[in-house]
Amino acid sequence: MVGPEQVTTQWHFWFVELLVYILLAVGALMAIPWVDRWERRAPFLFALGLVGVALLSRYDLVDPGLPKPPPVFWIFALGWALARARTNLHRLTVSLITVLTLPGFFNSTVREVTVAAGILLLAWVPALPVPALLRRVTGWLAAASLYIYLTHWLVYPVLLPVSQVLAVAGSLVFGVGYWALCRWAPGAWTAVKTRRKRARPALARTGP
Q1: Is there a single domain that holds both residue 5 and residue 105?
Q2: Distance of alpha carbon 208 from alpha carbon 199, whole angstroms
Q3: 161 is in which domain, residue-wise?
């Protein structure tokens, strides 16, 4: 929002930046008492209303004044409606909106089909069986998804000339490793400080 409109390295984290803006805006909206009461009284209809408003920017009927890439608030609102869906009619409504509005958004059929398939799975499939051997790996990938997103810019372009498969695999492995490091480092530092604190009284007792 405040950086250059030209596509530079500063755009690598545009999705995270827009998500921050959306969360701040939604937090301010829900702080209004009557809006909060409305959402609690009719949660699905409220979310559906947000989808309708957000689609105005999706189809450039209203310009929110943000630089490109295009605003993604309608996808956030669609996820909100999906989370509030309690009946088959609700889930069918979300599914139809997904199928009708995603085509053409990313200018990539593969990406649009992937996103649509993910939303439809969330809508209609409460659980997916996973082989025992893959549960730990899929758990790691799920937990590390944000870290993979944040670091793949460092790995994917380097390995892409060799192989696209290798580039994807390398990005996943690097992201999971970064996630594991971020989880391990604070605990390791805390353990070191704890050992130092315990060692000081012992040194004091054995001193002159």
Answers
A1: yes
A2: 16
A3: 130-208
Last-in-domain residue among 128, 147, 182: 128
List, in order, residues 6 or more apart from 25 with CB less than 8 Å away.
none
Q: Which of 68-77, 79-88, 128-137, 183-192 has the highest mean pLDDT?
A: 79-88
CA–CA distances in Å: residue 80 to residues 15, 25, 30, 52, 92: 17, 14, 13, 12, 15
pLDDT at 29 over 80: yes
Last residue of a domain, one of 128, 147, 175: 128
Average the pLDDT over 85-94 and give the result: 96
Which residues are within 8 A (CB) of 89 and not within 5 positions of it... i.e. 6 or more apart?
none
Global confidence as pTM: 0.75
Span 69-74, average pLDDT:
72
